[in-house]
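FAQ
Q: What does a multi-component entry look like?
A: The components come first, one per line:
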Amino acid sequence: MPNDEIVGLLDLATEFKAKIIAGEDVPSMKKTVIGLLFFENSTRTRVSFEQAAFYLGMRSSNFATSASSMNKGETLKDTILTLRHERINGLVMRHKASGAPMLAAKHFGGPVLNAGDGQHEHPTQALADALTILERKTSLVGLNVSIVGDVVHSRVARSNAWLLDKLGANVRLVGPRTLLPPHPSMLPGEFCDELEEGISGADVIICLRLQKERMAEGMISSIGEYSSLYQINAETLRFANPGCLVMHPGPINRGVEIDDVTADGDSSVINQQVENGVFVRMAAFYWCFGGQQS
Amino acid sequence: MKTLLRNGRILDPSLELDEIGSVLIENDQVIEIGKIEDLSDIDEVYDCTGFWITPGLVDMHVHLREPGDEHKETIISGTQAAAAGGYTTICCMPNTNPPLDNPAIVDFILDRAASPEAGGVFVAPVGALTKGLKGEELSNLAAMKRAGIVAASDEGFPIQNSQIMNRAMVFCNQIGLPILAHCDDSNLSKGGSMNEGAVSAMLGLKGIPRTSEEIATMRNCLLSLHTGCPVHIMRVSTWGAVEIIRLIKSLGAPVTCEICPMHFVFTEDDIGEFDTKFKMQPPLRTKVDVELLLQGLQDGTIDCIASDHSPHASHEVDVPFDEAPFGASTIEATLGATLTYLTHSGILSPLETVRKLSTMPAEILNLDGGTLKPEGLPVAQVTVIDPDIEWTFDRNKSFSKSKNTPFHKMKLKGKAVLTFSGSEIYRDALFPAERYAIYI
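Then the predicted structure of the entire assembly, as tokens:
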């Protein structure tokens, strides 16, 4: 996606946000029916897409996988073909396999919005994060953004690194070497295995969730050791620039990757990320359907 | 019945022969090669001017899927595909369902392969090294050898326990059964679906590190060195594995190895956006690996070329990359890919090409074949190759049931146009009709 289109999308999200807050009308896309296909558990992202669809007057249909025929052994391809021929206009999809939305798009023939695929991408989260930063820092150009934690397993880290780098930020990926990709060359940004150095001079810190199963896989020794090395708290925040924003895509492990005080503190914009998620998803819907029904 | 293959370039590495001449087949046997002057009482003539006449090709690594997975391939469709690929002998792998781990299944496979509908190629089964391919107890290897297996392997389920592998080698060495080893340390590769590297980092796919192949290669090489058991390393894909094999050969271990065409034609970059027909085991690696694999082919470290024909049904591969099975249908493209990427590019001479596709694999597994030598073979096994014909691989024309292949729509140069096992078992549409004459 070219930069001016990304900026256009973020501008549109800003416009929708202003109108919704002021109680003004937004475009109505009431003839559009969107299918929400969450093959992996998610509350926040699913609700955010539902809310975005609601604001635009779209109808959303939830396909809870436990109730659908996927449990009867139907393949992803057949599920998608069925929805296509039920004349669903677009899909929002989350799947545990990287690349699954591309496969879905191949068979669906209409817009498929990626709501997170495996360890690959989570583009609308990155857009919400970019909007949240832009509201406070006016421009991304030259901004130092450190993404801290379990980078290798994180689709949020990948999408954010690509998007923020593209919009001119200096991206750093920070974490223990076992949780950084072994071959960085195709991801933008510098790699850093030490927190102090990794967030020094940072204008924005994006914390990533640490999955507890990483211990069983031998990637970290203990939660305690991880926290002592990589937790964002008042003490470690001193290395960042004054006014540094602290972000987290959620769900948070309080006391692990971020402490309570920081998560709820003045520098935290975690709740704003959630809020902006709704508006960027509205913009994404509008962009996908060309606003043709407005 | 006398059949003359006239005026071709005879390439027979077993006789170190590279000369223009003819091959005479009578009663299913090669009876004469060279300048054949006396053309009286010849019944049929194939004009092979400009073509190569070679020993029938031998493929050490083929999955025929029968019994159990007949929706992917059958012995009939697989042997027909083999004949079309220029092969006269193929080895079928034991990961069938149930696994090929007892003499009854060996009998079943040999019976099916000998049926008149089959492609007419010899099928040499490879038995499971351990019962059920579980890596725990050895199969009844001696009984299977009597039934006709030519080697033993746990193929895609490599034995992780080094002691079991050690004992397997000691016993196989005793009964004279070579071991084929797919080398993978599964703790390192678990859950991976492509080469661990820059591309996997970008796609968010779990990688298979080169160390998982190289550690297992080193282990199997060392066990071969110390037990004396002939071990053939299957589908080498990393430069490190080539180095290890070069080293162990220099120490005198009875180790040989193969490469599959996917690993010298493609790299991890070809996966693009999650294209499952490029999902291989071991995974497609990098340009640097390909460069050093070519060197290994050239200096003889890599002994032979095998197709690793691994057919899958289309619905099985039209799934997310993680969930797709490894492997693709390749036996009909292996010769073309080899000629295009190795021979015409100057990596291998024509004679070396034939050595790696026929004579070496036959030698490694003590198979009948890999030679045109008039005495000694049960029936003539001969392939006629047009080395210069340019063609486009079309999966819809393939004999394999599986249409899942990375070679689809690829332009290749060189093709088998005739295959003989005793008599003609395959004639390609590209063999010009006017080059054939029959006098009875």
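Q: Is there any commentary attached?
A: Sometimes. For this entry: Residues 138 and 167 of chain B are 9 Å apart (CA to CA).
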